[in-house]
Amino acid sequence: MTDRELEPPGDGELRASPLELFFDLVFVFVVTQLTASLAHHLTPGGLARVLVMLAVIWWMYDAYIWVANALPPRTHGRRGLMLLGMGCFLVIALSVPRAFEGGGETFGWAYLLVIAVHTGMFATAGVRPEAVARMGALNLFGAGLVIAGGYLRGGPELLLWTAAFGLQLAIPYLVDLPRFQLRADHFVERHGLVVIVAFGESVIAIGVGIGDAELTGALIAAAMLALAVCVGLWWAYFGSDDEERAVHAMARLDDARRNLAAIKVYNLGHYALLLGVILFATGAKTATAHPTSPIHLPEALALAGGTALFLCANSAVRRTLDLGPGRLRLLAAALVLAAAPLGTAFSPLAQLAATAAVLALAFRAEHRRATGAAAAGASAREDVRGLPGAVAAVAGVGEVAGVVEAGEPG
Known about the structure:
Distance between the termini: 78 Å
Largest sheet: none
Protein name: Low temperature requirement protein A
InterPro entries: Low_temperature_requirement_A
Shape: globular
Number of domains: 2
Mean pLDDT: 86
Number of helices: 15
Helix content: over 70%
Order of helices and strands: HHHHHHHHHHHHHHH
Number of strands: 0
Strand content: under 5%
Pfam family, one: LtrA
Transmembrane segments: 21-40, 46-68, 80-100, 106-125, 132-152, 158-175, 187-210, 216-238, 259-280, 300-318, 330-363
Radius of gyration: 25 Å
């Protein structure tokens, strides 16, 4: 069978392919490595390093979602390039723990190859060659900053990697890609799958925190409560059919506005979501390791801050795509942060319990409000349909008369 025979048939529904799901498993390892790095260096400096590493990695990982949206990996050539990119991301993940301690150059060269493969694939996606050349040149310049930082190490490395991240933020405004036809169904689905695999890291962190300790009642309770919080974050993202509504919201936009919305919601917005998951997983790892003893402030803040950041980013995403109100989620984020002292004064078990309770109450109230609004709307429609014919006719005549009167000269 030739590559041409494997081409997708027309413009039907585009779903994530098994190879893309396989690709996501490498990203799970990236998240695992970043979580482990933050857990070992839970300081402002350690957090800054994770912020920058996640930023530069996620930018190019998301770029592969864009290129798979335009070029589904259904030919042998595309699959080979995707597998090459996957291998490079694996090298990047392996170098994360030592990226600021002597392994930054390995990170940088693997990152350069990731960009080269992506640019080569994107050049065949039907985008204007000038735009591809400009985007590729800017990405390669960013890779140069990452490589140079890897050799310099320390403060200069952090500065150059931050500059690379800043350049990435500017690329969508420096490269004109209005004619790129983004497929909303595939794009939304792929990002949902990435969030799912990130949640998997939280579950792994729970298990790593427990290790080979004896399964006491407190340990089991902490694990279940940490899982309950993770389920709450899952509900925030998936529980209100937001994925399906996001597809419709994106599909209604023209190409240029859809591409900008994709940058805001699925690149920047999901960067914040993933950072929230990493912070929560870091806190959960400590919480399950010592469920009944007070924990230090950084661990308590990671546990609370990760949950709160996820809720805030999720609210921003919903507001941008007009998926529903987010005030209750913002209130829940504030209450979760307020519960952080429970971990330092009493135990992470108490903090987890309070966090899970806040999420449950917030989503229950949100559901009841949405149900009430839907019932009120249905009742109003029934009332209109139930008007007697004569009353409806009189109302219609009144409307016509009002229009005619308004249209008469004074």
